[in-house]
Fold this sequence. Notes:
- This protein has 301 residues and is mainly α.
- The protein contains 12 helices and 4 strands, in the order ααααααααααββββαα.
- It has 2 domains: 114 residues, no CATH class; 164 residues, Orthogonal Bundle (Farnesyl Diphosphate Synthase).
Amino acid sequence: MNGHLEEQLARARIEEMHRYRRDIIYSQLRELISDDRMKILDLVNHGLALVDDELDSSPDPLEKIKHLGKIFQKSYEHECVAASTDAEHVVADLGYALKELACAPRWNIKNRAIGKNTYKEVLGFWEIEETNFQRRGKILDKNTLDNITLGIGAFAAAHFLYILDSPRVRYFNDNEFSELSRAYGLAVKLADNLCDFRDDIPKGFVNIPKEEIHHARGIFTKDDTVIQIIPENLALSSEYINYEYHRIEQEFAYADRLMVHAMIRRSIWDKSSKKLYLFGKFCHSWLEQAGEFAAVETLSR
């Protein structure tokens, strides 16, 4: 794991990674890819987490998103950029690294595809972040909230899959890639939303739909807008927690069925099979975390 980036992550992120063995699985995944792709995986995975943290504390996150997006595009085009914050350095380094991969020799089709496809994915990241911050402090209906959750989750899963086993190269086809990204991305993000609701709500991100907001305590709303939060009183009803955890289990079961079909298409001796296995294992750590959360929260009622 990139030590420099890891040291900059919030202590809570590092502790959570260790508790659910994500750091171990992540290290195993890195061992299966080349050094140039290791760097990109670290920048996208840990680096964009730093970007998220910086946006959360920014007085004008929407303007900051536009600024970072421009830095990313300029660095990808090999233009000189002046980076001053950690987030700006991450974004610039990612743009340069992806361009280098995209300009690999013509015989290295996989690296060229990974560079170009990951660049396109990260371009979409700025749109996702903008949509996410625009809804800050608002209570959304279930369909709107699910679309945001899916967008964020699918991006996170897609960049892993692009770097580990890029589509349009060998076994992957666009449909298979998209389905795996969306399925595991949604499952992981739903689990993450449930487990982190006490951290997310004070930041303005309410991941409980307005149809179910009556299940939340410690938050007061008017006209689908948050008007007051009492952090120490934040809680969810056992009914809502159990419902969401069951939904998370169903989403993981669906993603796992897609994974079985993807694995069947690959030889057990092919390195891509091990990559997909570890990717699935990495995602399942969030199911474990959600299960532990649900058990503790419902028992405390």
